[in-house]
Each structure stands twice: as structure tokens, then as C-alpha cells.
């Protein structure tokens, strides 16, 4: 038998340990890079979601209520407010969409009520500001400023008069 083949050297053990450490460091690096990419994707998706949802919400509300001239802009709470008028059981009600205290809010109230507070509206989405204006008889311009300061503007056609 060959006596040198049964001997183990320290260098063999160190080499195996170094290979295992190199593999461990490589695996941790790949996991770290993947986690950072995932975190960035989630943040971007969240920002896009907030922008799309606020504009889509306003646009869809206008489209749902766009009958017989029931969509208009009114000055209320020192700002322009989007108003949807509807009749329920012979009573006229308004739905107001506006921004207050960092939120897009919606308030459903009788049309003859004059004294209600802006904080009574239901919180819909977190945002900095919401501005609506009537550019002509059939067109509304809605501008939403998100929490991060980015602005989204949409023009919404009003088909009924």
C-alpha cells in the first residue's frame, strides 16, 4: 500500500472550508441583490398604484354620475369640489369629492344642507391635494398631487348636459 495516500494535509481541509465560505458569500450576495431589486419594484409599483387609483377613482365617479347634467364643480371649503347630484325617493342629494387634511374625501349629504364640516367626509385615498375645474361645458380638468409631490392631470369629458 501507498502510505502517502492515507495522509490528510491541513491544506485539504482549509481548501474545502474556503470553498464553502466562498459559496456562502456568493449565495448571500445573490440573495441581497435580489431583495434590493424586489424592494425597488414594490416601491415603484406602490407609487404607480397610488397615482392610477386616484385618477381612476375620480374618472369612474364622473362616468357613473354623468346623466342629465348632474355633474358639476362648486366652490366649497375654500376649494373647487366635484359634485354629483342625484334624486333618491324625491329628495335631492349631493356627493362631494374634495381633498382635506391629506386625503381625498367623499361626502354624501342632502343638497339643502349648508353647514357641514369637511372632516365629515369619508377618507378615500391619501394624497396632498385635489383640484377640479371646468374647462368648458363638456370638459373637466382634475389634478391630483400625490404624497411624494408628483402630479397627475386628467381631462374628463362630461357627456350629459
The overall number of domains is 1
Low-confidence stretches: none
Describe the biggest sheet? 5 strands, antiparallel
Q: What is the number of E strands?
A: 8
Helix content: 25-40%
What's the overall average pLDDT, rounded? 90
Question: Separation of termini?
Answer: 104 Å
- Write down the secondary-structure element order: HEEEEEEEE
- Class by SSE composition: alpha+beta
Number of helices: 1
Biggest β-sheet: strands ordered side by side in the sheet = 1-2-3-4-5
Strand residue percentage: 35-45%
Keywords: Membrane, Transmembrane, Transmembrane helix
Organism: Butyrivibrio proteoclasticus (strain ATCC 51982 / DSM 14932 / B316)
Pfam families: DUF4860 (PF16152)
InterPro entries: DUF4860
Question: Which labels suit this protein?
Answer:
161 residues; alpha+beta; 1 helix; 35% helix; rod-shaped; membrane; transmembrane helix; DUF4860 domain-containing protein; DUF4860
Amino acid at each position: 500500500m501507498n502510505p502517502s495516500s492515507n495522509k490528510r494535509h491541513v491544506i485539504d481541509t482549509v481548501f474545502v472550508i474556503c470553498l464553502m465560505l466562498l459559496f456562502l458569500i456568493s449565495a448571500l450576495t445573490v440573495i441581497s441583490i435580489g431583495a434590493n431589486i424586489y424592494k425597488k419594484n414594490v416601491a415603484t409599483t406602490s407609487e404607480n398604484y397610488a397615482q392610477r387609483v386616484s385618477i381612476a377613482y375620480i374618472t369612474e365617479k364622473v362616468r357613473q354620475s354623468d346623466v342629465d347634467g348632474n355633474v358639476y364643480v362648486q366652490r366649497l371649503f375654500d376649494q373647487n369640489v366635484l359634485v354629483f347630484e342625484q334624486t333618491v325617493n324625491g329628495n335631492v342629494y349631493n356627493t362631494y369629492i374634495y381633498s382635506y387634511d391629506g386625503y381625498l374625501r367623499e361626502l354624501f349629504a342632502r343638497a339643502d344642507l349648508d353647514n357641514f364640516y369637511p372632516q365629515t367626509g369619508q377618507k378615500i385615498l391619501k394624497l396632498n391635494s385635489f383640484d377640479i375645474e371646468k374647462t368648458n361645458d363638456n370638459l373637466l380638468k382634475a389634478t391630483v398631487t400625490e404624497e411624494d409631490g408628483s402630479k397627475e392631470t386628467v381631462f374628463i369629458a362630461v357627456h350629459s348636459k
